[in-house]
């Protein structure tokens, strides 16, 4: 039942105390230690995330790999963790290479530009990524270079024919 002392205790709560009280289970868990509180310049407390749930799809693999990781980690750390989980769970198909340096992380499979390996996860703006093997680095040549090579090879053919005559 209600007692007068309990009602008086509730009356003495300040507005700031009421704002900080959790209203849902997720807020309760956040206050219980799953997130940190940081004060900004105005003295207001702001919650910071301590862990992120990242979803990474590996090329030619079924399903997504879920990784719980700190937002302070880099893209390279995420690649290492994803490969570790993939190997630990013995997923198929087997990877031909397990070195994290041989893989690139993209926002989607349709995005050609890979993410910077030193970028922090909290700055990426997404939690869904696509991991694919790094393409072999080829020498970029212009069309004019290829035309010159082809032209030179055609002019050498008559010289070779003169040798046989």
From TrEMBL:
It comes from the Eukaryota. Pfam families: DUF7054 (PF23156). Residues 50-132 form the DUF7054 domain. InterPro entries: At4g22758-like, DUF7054. PANTHER family: BNAC05G50380D PROTEIN, SNRNP25 UBIQUITIN-LIKE DOMAIN-CONTAINING PROTEIN. This is DUF7054 domain-containing protein.
């Amino acid at each position: 039942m209600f007692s007068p002392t309990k009602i008086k205790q509730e009356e003495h709560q300040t507005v700031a105390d009421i704002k900080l009280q959790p209203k849902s289970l997720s807020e309760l868990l956040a206050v219980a230690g799953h997130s940190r509180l940081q004060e900004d310049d105005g003295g207001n407390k702001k919650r910071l995330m301590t862990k992120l749930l990242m979803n990474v799809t590996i090329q030619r693999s079924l399903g997504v790999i879920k990784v719980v990781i700190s937002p302070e980690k880099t893209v390279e750390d995420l690649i290492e963790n994803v490969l570790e989980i993939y190997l630990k769970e013995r997923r198929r198909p087997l990877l031909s290479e397990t070195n994290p340096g041989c893989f690139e992380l993209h926002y989607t499979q349709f995005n050609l530009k890979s993410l910077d390996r030193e970028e922090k996860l909290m700055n990426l703006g997404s939690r869904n990524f696509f991991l694919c093997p790094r393409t072999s680095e080829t020498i970029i040549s212009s069309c004019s270079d290829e035309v010159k090579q082809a032209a030179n090879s055609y002019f050498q053919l008559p010289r070779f024919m003169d040798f046989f005559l």
